[in-house]
Amino acid sequence: MNYASIISTLAMAIGLSVAVSGAPAFAFGDGSNSGSSDAPIVCNKGYVYSQKEKICVKASSSLLDDKELYQQGRDLAKAGYYEHALPVLFAVKNQNDPMVLTMIGYSKRKMGDITGGFAFYNKALAIDPDNINTREYLGEGYVTLGRVDLAEAELAKIEKIAGRDTEQYEALELAITGGSTW
Q: Is the pTM of this model over 0.85?
């Protein structure tokens, strides 16, 4: 048994993961990451948890397809691990997917790079102008900048596309009326 196998076996026994290469890429989380868990498995920056291999692997490895990379990047971003989400989202091969671009923008905005976030939102909207997730996050960014007028314009677009009875409409409306802007 080689060194990497021993480390991997020991780590698995105590509920951690390490990269096969022997470079530690520790993970923490509840282990039940099904793609929609509120508590994703978080590996070191640049690594992502492979459900198949049950270890952290480089986000750029070929072990994960675009769908799994996007889902894990999204889960990391939504759980507040923006710096961890970005390398995973950038590892997605299809960088013209509007949802990938939206989540990159979301992570950048949440890290304080509002201009960078807007750039990715605009790329996403150029591909899919009816993406209400992108419109919600763009509107929240406008609220952060004090541009409630522009946020209200995004709210009106969401209403026109999907109506008022959507999570995105409600979240942006809350941000505009003084709720969370981040």
A: no
